[in-house]
Every structure is written in C-alpha cells, then in structure tokens.
Amino acid sequence: MSTPPVVPQDESVPPLPAGIPLHPAGSPAAAHTAGRRALPNLLIIAVALAVGVLGGTGAIPLDRNGLLRFALGMVVGLNLHIVAYWLLGPLSGVATVWTSLGVGRWLGHTTRRGRLVVFRLLPLIPFIACQVIVGRPGLRRRMWACAAATLLAEAVASAALVAAGGPAASVGWGLAAVTLLVLAAQPGRVTSPAWRLFRLPFGDNDQALAEWVHDPATLAAARAACAGRIDLARAALDAAPAAPGDASPRRLAMEASLALCEGRCDAAARTAAELRERSHAPELRRGALQLYACAVADGIAAGHWRAADAMPYFDAALAALRAESKAAALRGTDLAAMEALFRGRPQQAVKLATLAAANAATVHVRARALLTLAAAHTAAGHPELSRAPRARAAALSPTLHTTR
C-alpha cells in the first residue's frame, strides 16, 4: 500500500510529521484568521449601534413593529443584492453553476438546462445562485460595472423608501444597513463587492482574477458534477484537455473533485496538493485542503491506504483547516462525520452525516454524505439502516464511485 502524497510545505511555518502546513496559535497567519473571524461580530455590533442611533434620532421607532420593519428591510436588501448579481451575471463575466430556492434543509432538486436547482425548507432567502467567473473580454470592467450598478440600485431603493417616510422609512433604513454590511464584508477577498468596487480598477489584478476563472470545459464539468452526473463532467473535461502543465487552478480543482468522485483517491490527493501549492486566495487554498482531506478519508475507507499510515495525514489536514478558519473549516463536506467514524464514534458520525446530507449544497456532495451515513449505520451495528441512504445516494448520482 502507498501513503498519501505530502501537501507542499508553507515556508513560513514549521513542518508537521504528516507534511500538512499548519499555522500554530500565535503565528501571524493565525492572528490574521482570528481577525477574519472577528469581522462578523464587529458587523453585528455596527448594526446594533446603527439601530440605536436611528432610534435615538427618531428615524425608526424602537418598538416591535419598527424593528420588524427594519429587519424586513434587511431581508429585502439581501435578496435584492443576490437577484441583481444574478440578473447582471451574463453581462459581468460570471456564470451560474447551480441555484437554490430557499435556505436550510434539503427538500428536493431538479435539473433545468443542465443546471442543478435545489429546493430547501426556509423561504427566508427565496433565491441563491452559485456563480463563478468565466473568461470574457473586458472582464475587469464588466465586473466593476456590475458591482457599481448593484450598489446604485440598492442605494436608490433605500433612499426612495426613507424619503417616503412612515412605515416605509424603517424598511428603507434596514435595506441601507444590509447594503453597507455586504459592502464592508471581506473587503480583501477577490470577487467580493468591496474588492470589485475599490480594488479591481487599480493595480495589476489580472493574476488575482486568473485563479478564479473557469474555462468553458471546466464550467460545463462543474454544472454536470453538481447535478450528480460524474460521467458527463468527465466527458466535458476530456473533450477539451488542457496542455500538460498548463491546467488552470480551477481546472485542477475540477480534476481533483472528479477524481474523488471516480474513486481515484491517490490522483485526487496529489492534484489537490498541487492545487493548494498553486493557489493564493485563502478560500481557494482552503478548498484544496478540503479536497485533500476528503481524498485521504476515501482512501482509508476504501482500504487503499492503511489507517495507521494515512490517519496522520488526515488529522493534520483537519487541524490545518480548523486553524485557518474555524467557522468554515469543514462546511459543505462530510469530513466531520468521517472523523467521528475513524475515531470509533459511529453514533456521532450518524448525526454529523445526517446533518451534512441535509445541508449539502449539491447533489454529489449530498450523495457522498449519504454514503457516509450508510457506513456510520453499519459501524453502529445497524446495517439494515444503511440500505436506505445507500439507495438514495445511488439514485442521486448513479455514476458516483462508492468507497463506503
């Protein structure tokens, strides 16, 4: 048996025996991560202060109805922002991979024009679109214009409601508050509204954008994989092969994801390691590390690697993920359930896998979580309970390779 490939070291941090870069507590990277985690708390405080100031000046009544209208304005503003970006997407150089109607637990799904549409429990946010950047002439100008147009539409709507006075004013102030919050969130992240507006037009940002851009084949593969059609995703990539050594970061990410879905754990781990080395944006590096951890987990589950040999790699990958971003470390994966399963806690694995399946973003992610749920039931001594989730996984994604 082979051992998982070592993820390249970050030169700024000491190596771990398993070869996974992990920023220790107190390092600059850890402090930077703590700063990112503190930002949402600061934004919440800012909203509370804004409500207090507006209430003190009489702009909004600080009673139940006034606060409810303010909250309604925030919900309306968030949805306006999402819809505006979706409508302007074809003009701004982005494309939709999948959409979600509602938020929360998975209710069902369909496919429209080759794109996944998921139905969820709560209509708090009626519509969410997963959009990715595609190569278009004048991409920087297009992205800036879309962000500016969206901000202008939100500002005009807010001003009109506030100017109308009465109950509408509270809604308008809520819309204005969420507009400012969205604009202030993650200003350093490439593709965020603040980055598009204030940083994209200046300096050399072509390299920063390049690692986010999807070529047509990668976009087609992403849409097919999200809908559970691993065979169609592979056909899309094979129809337009990248030259050796010239694969873009997004193509590498798609290759790693497909290798994982096809049961080629070693190829998935090696491609994910290469992707992490070539990526610069923290979000993309974290995604590469998630793929690496999933590949190692699948290799252990399939018996491709001995648990005694591969577990240090898996543990170090999870430690690195949690050090980089505690809130989002394992989000969107069944890694927490796999960890519990490897640690001999099958009942906990059942709960975590159930949660992962209920909140999965796409069909193939949900199918993987259901397979983990089946394995957890078997490990818990209830093999009869594993048949239903395994059958649902097969129905969702018939060409997904099963390693559980």
TrEMBL record:
The chain crosses the membrane at residues 42-60, 116-134. Residues 382-398 have a biased composition (Low complexity). Residues 382-404 are annotated as: Disordered. This is Uncharacterized protein. It comes from Actinacidiphila bryophytorum. The keyword Transmembrane applies. Keywords: Membrane, Transmembrane, Transmembrane helix. The keyword Membrane applies.
